[in-house]
Amino acid sequence: MKERDYLLKIIDNDKNIRVFLARTTSLVEEAHQRHCTSATASAALGRVMTAAVMMGGDLKGQEDILTLRVNGNGVAGTVLATADSHGSVRGLISNPYADLPSSSPGKLAVGELVGTDGYLEVIKDLGLKQPFTGKVALVSGEIAEDLAQYFAMSEQIPSLVALGVLVNTDLSIQTAGGLFVQALPGARDESLEIIENNIMNMGPISAVLNRYDSLEDILPILMKELQYTVVGEQDLSFRCNCSKERMLNVLSSLSDDDLGGSLGDEELEVVCNQCRQRYTFDGQEIAALRKAKP
């Protein structure tokens, strides 16, 4: 694997566009290992996680949380990722073993796996009374095009989005990452045309990320003919906020029947659905939990 997972934030010096460029190979590989995903499921989950963690780079508050949820009523089921403002992300796909043959050589059938009869939803918990929720109908199920639709419809930001995951024959992740290009207010058409042509000439983002050792190596190609400044950099990682204490709080809301009857010597195993971490509670812990219930 090349380099670390990180995000670069770039603005052209004339303030026409801003660019987010990220490598997410290691975190997508960890998601694959934790969820035992098929090749196409890895690509779907990897794209959603990449998009979520990049969008998390825009969060301002220390406790802000963003959730990206996609469900097109395909065999993948729901694909979901949750990111914070610190570069951490976790995620899940309802059917991690789902796979479909591709109709295009060298291209995984993500759109077919996800489906198009559904929605892409963004939920931002910014510490207010109610979280912000934006929801758009899916365009292709390929995630990137659907996210560009979300930015245009829900946030009124013209955007170009590219997301990619390269999967090896042994199902490990070769490369993963993404690119956001967004027009700033009053952006000149000439600048937008230049970067659009640059991106078209680069080819698929996954292939570009696989070709270069660092994101900095890509910038002169991506920003060709444009003067630019790197205004931010952030490390990215797969990280879940689950813990035994949190799981105990979940168990406290269950009935005695759900907790396994009245036997005090039973063990109960709870699995986090976003990271697959297993937590075991012994009979004494379950008995103490029952005793504490009102």
Report on this model:
- The chain is α+β, with helices and mostly antiparallel strands and 294 residues long.
- The protein has 2 domains: 233 residues, Hsp33 domain, CATH 3.55.30.10; 49 residues, Alpha-Beta Complex (CBS domain Like).
- Helices cover 31% and strands 29% of the residues.
- The protein has 9 helices and 13 strands.
- The strands form 3 sheets. It has a 6-stranded mixed beta sheet, with helices on one face. Strands 8-9-2-1-10 form a 5-stranded antiparallel beta sheet, with helices on both faces. The protein has a two-stranded antiparallel ribbon with strand order 12-13.
- A hairpin with a 6-residue loop joins strand 6 and strand 7.
- Helix 1 crosses helix 2.
- The radius of gyration is 21 Å and the shape is globular.
- The model has no long low-confidence stretch (mean pLDDT 91).
